[in-house]
């Protein structure tokens, strides 16, 4: 990406806000923090107002900064739409769409649905990035972020694509050897396959007496990839807590057994995060509709091969 000294003021400021901090923006552009700071200061001097309060953790927009950001997003989107519309058939969508998704869901379902969408809309360019990072840690600039589970506070719009929750599963062979736990307290006596997403203690979330509660679990097999972890579970290595969208086909076939089915678990819906408003390109809206309509159909009919 060009350095901030060579981009339009609106593009610079909206990208800076999306980055969250001047440090992150400088890393994204490959320049020093002082370069970003000088660029922001020059912009504020040109406008004659302060746009943001600098902090060690985040930029806090002033009312003027929020107006400039919101208006800038709308203007920039209109320019991109105008560029994309030149030479198009009226009503035809075109242009780039960047999608970021969690790895497992992205590989198994989002990628095929993007290919399907692009085959229907040949002038749209689809880009998919698979990541194990939370959306807040992904570099700014994506149009749609696919997330599973509760979202941290977000200023972006959220659309529910699929109802989902996480459940405990195990192979019949593992349960035959080690027994079936009848209560969450019995999990401590089992080999639990741990999805390691950070360095903190690992707990599985249940609704106990109507309250969401974390139950600590331990195991000797840890992984940061849900697909690899599910393979271990299918091989009889232990219990796993996985999303229903991932394990339901195996439950139907009898390859896995739902453990503790009487203990409810919190909702962990599949959602799309995006910028709402009149400036959202038609291609993004059409793709959101495609994912909302096709993802439940695909997961409902999808089953693993023999």
Please report the first level of CATH classification, the CATH class of the largest domain: Alpha Beta
The neighbouring-strand order within the major sheet is: 4-3-5-14-6
Which value, in Å, is the CA radius of gyration?
23 Å
- Main beta sheet: 5 strands, mixed
Number of structural domains: 3
* Mean of all residue-level pLDDT scores: 86
CATH overall fold name of the largest domain: D-Maltodextrin-Binding Protein, domain 2
CATH-assigned homologous superfamily of the largest domain: Periplasmic binding protein-like II
| Morphology call | globular
Instruction: Work out the helix count.
Output: 9
Query: Which structural class do the helices and strands define?
Result: alpha/beta
Strand content: 15-25%
Distance between the termini: 46 Å
Order of helices and strands: HHHEEHEHEEEEHEEEEHEHEEH
Unreliable stretches (pLDDT < 50, length at least 5) are 1-7, 302-306
**Any idea what the CATH architecture of the largest domain is?**
3-Layer(aba) Sandwich
Specify the helix fraction band: 25-40%
Write the layout of secondary structure elements.
Elements lengths: L8 H11 L2 H8 L3 H15 L4 E2 L6 E2 L1 H23 L9 E8 H18 L3 E8 L12 E5 L8 E6 L3 E5 L1 H7 L15 E2 L7 E6 L2 E6 L5 E2 L2 H9 L5 E4 H10 L3 E3 L10 E5 L7 H20 L5
Parallel strand pairs: 3-4, 3-5, 8-11
Antiparallel strand pairs: 1-2, 5-14, 6-14, 7-12, 7-13, 9-10
